[in-house]
């Protein structure tokens, strides 16, 4: 999915200086962003004062939207580099096309994982015949230096491992949780899990104390470590936890995001993650000139143009903790 903000501003990400070394309870409010035709998203990352959670660098939550009489999601072809996109649905379908020739419909609780590597372009749209409701999350994972220029590829996984306890079921989307590992390819120590929590249930989820974590609320009402979380909000939890108390006020859907703190300093602009402003400028030039990122075939419409670069230099920043 694309960042369609025409007034795109650079985000300085990474570096352990942004990491909270001990457990905290920091509730993040979303920023509302219009995405394509008729889809509004709630953007949780990057957020004011909180740029990343592990290697997770971008989080949008959207829906549930009634699109019975609407075209639904319509995101034209656009480029990516230096990251992975994770498509996750609770309701509806999204048709993915990319410059590799991939054509795949992603459905609820299926993993659509696109690794951009050095360069890729793709589009996302609701199929012409689609379900009434559209509800999901789109996330980016920053690729580390050793893998950020690999060949692009797309994976689609329908059979994901599940971890269960009384009152809670967790589907492992990416990485590992409680010994269960996703088949999706990860390039840093990471975890992403979709949790269904029953109303009235109380559970304790095992965590890795070396990871930092956050929980995104998708639906219903829940308490995470005693903090009420409502749909469209995210609770940042810091590091140093061995378990996470959960309580369902009602039936609730949550996403656990975590990982080893990402030490490299990054620049994120529009749909690019890089290490310098010069790399961003070159990527934008390549996209506008129609080179490097390939062509998405079959999408009915024009591709996106890149926003203008800011007048001030783009520089990665951060500090070592």
TrEMBL record:
The keyword Metal-binding applies. SUPFAM superfamilies: RmlC-like cupins. Its cofactor is Fe cation. Residues 193-293 form the Pirin C-terminal domain. Keywords: Iron, Metal-binding. One of its GO terms (molecular function) is metal ion binding. InterPro entries: Pirin (IPR012093), Pirin_C_dom (IPR008778), Pirin_N_dom (IPR003829), RmlC-like_jellyroll (IPR014710), RmlC_Cupin_sf (IPR011051). It comes from the Bacteria. Fe cation binds at residues 78, 80, 122, 124. Binds 1 Fe cation per subunit. Residues 40-141 form the Pirin N-terminal domain. Belongs to the pirin family. This is Pirin-like protein. It comes from Streptomyces griseus subsp. griseus (strain JCM 4626 / CBS 651.72 / NBRC 13350 / KCC S-0626 / ISP 5235). The lineage of its organism: Bacteria, Bacillati, Actinomycetota, Actinomycetes, Kitasatosporales.
């Amino acid at each position: 999915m694309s960042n369609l903000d025409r007034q795109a501003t650079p985000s300085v990400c990474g570096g352990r200086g942004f990491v909270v070394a001990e457990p905290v309870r920091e509730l993040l409010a979303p920023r509302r962003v219009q995405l394509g035709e008729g889809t509004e998203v709630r953007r949780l990352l990057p957020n004011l004062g909180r740029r990343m959670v592990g290697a997770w660098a971008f989080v949008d939550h959207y829906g549930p939207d009634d699109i019975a009489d609407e075209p639904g999601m319509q995101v034209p072809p656009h480029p990516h580099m230096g990251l992975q996109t994770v498509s996750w649905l609770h309701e509806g379908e999204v048709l993915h096309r990319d410059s590799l020739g991939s054509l795949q419909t992603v459905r609820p609780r299926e993993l659509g994982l696109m690794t951009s590597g050095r360069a890729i372009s793709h589009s996302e749209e609701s199929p012409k015949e689609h379900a009434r409701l559209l509800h999901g999350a789109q996330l980016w994972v920053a690729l580390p230096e050793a893998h950020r220029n690999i060949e692009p590829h797309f994976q689609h996984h329908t059979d994901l491992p599940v971890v269960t306890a009384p009152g809670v079921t967790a589907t492992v989307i990416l990485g590992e949780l409680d010994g269960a590992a996703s088949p999706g390819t990860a390039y840093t120590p990471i975890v992403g899990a979709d949790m269904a929590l029953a109303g009235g249930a109380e559970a304790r989820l095992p965590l890795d104390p070396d990871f930092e974590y956050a929980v995104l609320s998708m639906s219903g009402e829940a308490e995470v470590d005693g903090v009420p979380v409502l749909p469209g909000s995210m609770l940042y939890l810091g590091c140093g936890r061995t378990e996470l108390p959960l309580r369902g006020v009602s039936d609730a859907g949550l996403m656990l995001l975590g990982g080893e703190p990402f030490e490299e300093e990054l620049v994120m602009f529009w749909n690019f993650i890089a290490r310098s402003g010069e790399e961003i400028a070159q990527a934008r030039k390549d996209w506008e000139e129609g080179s490097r990122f390939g062509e998405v075939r079959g999408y009915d419409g024009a591709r996106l143009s890149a926003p203008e670069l800011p007048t001030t230099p783009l520089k990665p920043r951060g500090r070592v903790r």
